[in-house]
């Protein structure tokens, strides 16, 4: 084969590879958009059902969501399963806008070393490991929340102190947004290391970005948990803040802005708690 023919063949192969990669990326983005739409719809439906169930008035002037307790004949196991299912759907709606660019960077990094089918498989492994981290976190959140709910139902003094505790949690979460630890977590979420195009590396990378993401979003997620997981407006605001600080050119500035809002909100909650007391 002459050098000219070889060059033409090589150029044709590269062009075909680029076209296949672009097609694969379009399919991936389309799947992400569909998953996001489905998770948002499911979250809205769940929020409507929780609003219809109401909440339990508690000493101290606050109400406890039925998320944290077995109701209507449900066992604790069913309550936990319901919470974890809701948690997974809600986290998909909240985290997909910032996770998709991370997955796109990963696909770009290994795309030249993997076929379209293998690239899809590795992307699924990364996403699966990421979901495992958030699911494990959901299990821990339910265990803690259910325990606190049971104690609050048993001890009125503890229930009366909850509004004050919520204001303290929001204050600490807001302060965390200004920390160098938060800045390091943001920096980690924006980098994609050089990785082999194999399954173990994909799984480990998914676990790593899941842990980094959970740490990076920990403060804002804590605010959502203590103020109200069924508040769709707060959920939308937290989602916007998480996405903006991960994708904006100056993510630290966005984190500081959301931290300032959280600290101000903590002040208002503190005033309300002291007034109620």
TrEMBL record:
Keyword Transferase carried by entry: no
Keyword Ribosomal protein attached: no
Keywords, sorted A to Z: Membrane, Transmembrane, Transmembrane helix
InterPro entries: PpoB2-like (IPR018688)
Coiled coil: none
Gene source species: Paraburkholderia tuberum
One Pfam family linked to the record: PpoB2
TM stretches of this protein: 27-56, 76-99, 119-152, 164-184, 205-227, 253-274
Name of this protein: Predicted metal-binding membrane protein
